[in-house]
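User: Design a sequence. Structure:
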């Protein structure tokens, strides 16, 4: 009689430990990604695992400052934000911690995550060339660098250099070309501007569609959003640098907060974000690309066509950010 009772007891204890693991955790996520983009994801995770997720959304700089100020008492387990430049800063500030995860390494290509494993890309954002087909034929287009040539004079539209997206783009150009050549490209861009830089990608697109300029550089999801509202606008996406290093990509992503009280559970959530079942949920609402190469983008996004993406590690967007800002200033790119 003794043995079956022992086996039963062990089994019951095992069951208790399982339910305990499923229900004891509550996670706190600080997210610079907007609420409507993350809420469906969190709800799906809670439904699947029973882990409740509380979240706070704000601008990246505000959340990072808050985590710093809260120090060891921070309730935050995970920080989610956009742009590798921001994620790199979070790692530099010491508010994230390195995470070792086979699943994350398998699901996320290495150029889209921190070599020090403190941040991980979770969706891909593509900053590419957009043109007005009434003014430009695609065979006139080739590279970001080519937009600095005199034939684009009075035809180029850009967003302000204050936006981290452009700081990251320029930082990645510096990684490829070095400082002197990048400065030359920036000076060419500035010379070719048809109007002073705009405050948003959407304004760049509207100006291209209105004929104020012929060509610009924006993130593709803004094109998708605008064309959803106004499908007849004369706007086309072009994939530059296909015979060179490829299209400039960036990520939205996250990392485990240095003083998280639930490190293992936070890693599990990050891993789930990168999984095949969550990737579409994460990327599609914002018309972004999944970071996991085994997952196909939303059909609307896939319709823009396939392209080669720049494989240089995105930590350079952070490493060269300060110098990129200086360079843009020196080149007169406002
Ligand atoms: Fe954006």
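Assistant: Done.
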């Amino acid at each position: 009689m003794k043995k079956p009772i022992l086996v039963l007891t062990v089994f019951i204890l095992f069951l208790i430990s399982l339910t305990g693991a499923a229900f004891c955790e509550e996670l706190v996520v600080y997210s610079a990604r907007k609420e409507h983009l993350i809420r469906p994801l969190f709800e799906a995770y809670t439904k699947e695992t029973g882990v409740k997720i509380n979240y706070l959304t704000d601008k990246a700089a505000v959340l990072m400052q808050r985590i710093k100020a809260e120090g060891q008492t921070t309730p935050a387990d995970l920080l989610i934000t956009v742009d590798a430049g921001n994620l790199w800063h979070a790692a530099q500030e010491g508010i994230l911690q390195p995470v070792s995860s086979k699943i994350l390494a398998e699901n996320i290509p290495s150029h889209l995550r921190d070599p020090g494993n403190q941040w991980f890309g979770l969706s891909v954002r593509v900053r590419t060339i957009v043109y007005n087909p009434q003014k430009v034929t695609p065979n006139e287009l080739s590279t970001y660098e080519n937009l600095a040539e005199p034939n684009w004079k009075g035809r180029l539209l850009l967003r302000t250099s204050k936006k981290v997206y452009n700081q990251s783009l320029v930082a990645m150009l510096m990684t490829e070309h070095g400082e002197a050549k990048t400065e030359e490209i920036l000076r060419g861009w500035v010379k070719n501007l048809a109007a002073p830089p705009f405050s948003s990608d959407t304004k760049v697109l509207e100006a291209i569609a209105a004929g104020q300029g012929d060509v610009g550089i924006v993130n593709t999801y803004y094109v998708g959003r605008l064309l959803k509202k106004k499908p007849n606008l004369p706007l086309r996406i072009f994939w530059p640098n296909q015979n060179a290093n490829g299209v400039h990509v960036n990520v939205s992503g996250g990392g485990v907060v240095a003083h998280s009280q639930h490190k293992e559970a936070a890693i599990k959530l990050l891993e789930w974000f990168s999984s095949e079942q969550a990737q579409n949920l994460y990327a599609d609402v914002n018309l972004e690309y999944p970071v996991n190469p085994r997952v196909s983008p939303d059909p609307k996004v896939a319709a823009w066509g396939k392209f080669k993406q720049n494989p240089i590690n995105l930590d350079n967007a952070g490493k060269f950010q300060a110098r990129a800002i200086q360079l843009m200033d020196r080149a007169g790119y406002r």
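Confidence is low (pLDDT under 50) at residues 18-24. The longest helix spans residues 2-23.
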